[in-house]
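Re-running Transducin/WD40 repeat-like superfamily protein to confirm reproducibility after the cluster update. Everything else is unchanged from the original entry.
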Amino acid sequence: MKGVCLNFENPVEDAVSRIRFAPQSNNLLISSWDSNLRLYDVDSSLLRLEAPAPSQAALLDCCFQSESVAFTAASDGSITRYDLHSGTIDAIGNHQDMATCVGYSIETCQVISAGLDKKVMSWDMRLANPLALFRNLGAEIDSISISGFDLMVAVGAAVNIYDLRNYERAVDFKEPSMDVGISCIASVPYTRGYAIGLIDGRVALEISNPLNSNSTGYTFRCRPATKDGTPHLVSVNDIVFNPFIGGTFVTGDNEGYVTVWDAKSKRRLHEIPRYPNSVASLSYNHMGQLLAVVSSYTYQEANETEVSPQIFVQKMEDSYVGFSSEVSNRK
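Result of re-run:
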């Protein structure tokens, strides 16, 4: 079962770039290449907001600050703040090239963005006129993830980790173990660590144990490397960890598959039947009971079908997500 498909009176007109569940509700934030930011109430099956980007640029990422405030990153480099209640839109700042990703740190009240101008930028939202701080990483940036005070940045085939309280230099640097580009990075919510999705269909995990100095690191392939005797490499487009059950995470790939994995046992728990198009983005709700899935073309493959994107919400049964007692985070 692929879950319930959300109904839009006016279909999304271009590829969906990102979906994010709200911090404490089942409101779903949706950014799209059609330049619109949407807020969909999953519980009521209602579209609460549809706000066009001021510049009409494609929206490449989005995130929540709170239930009522969100941010977007756009193809013209702009970082924009949206008041989801009043509909007010404010410009925060700009990159010199496409802004590919945006995130928000609750701990430091910073908006963090990155882009093809090779910069990571931040703005302190506690200030009336926040000044832009930036660091040039010397390479285009496609993915970031924030966990606590840690900012994790995927740069080419490497991972830089910064302390948001002072990111003049990386506090950790993971040399690439393979010469393959990173398509996405996701921080582990229950401890220090991350998972990266690679463009060749593999996932690499680095997880630290807070109780000792031991760490877990391994790489596995989500899909077979060959099909009918020929190379068949499928990019992993997104990874999300279940916020309620530690050690369980989900991958979505360019072939349309969503798969649930257990980090401790290193095994597949469940695979949802194939979606009609590439899986562009994933999001768990705050209790880990619902998984939102975007089935959309991603402009990565020549054979992708450019039909209207669809967003599905799947109720995650216990049998889908498993249970890992060592890293459980049940509340």
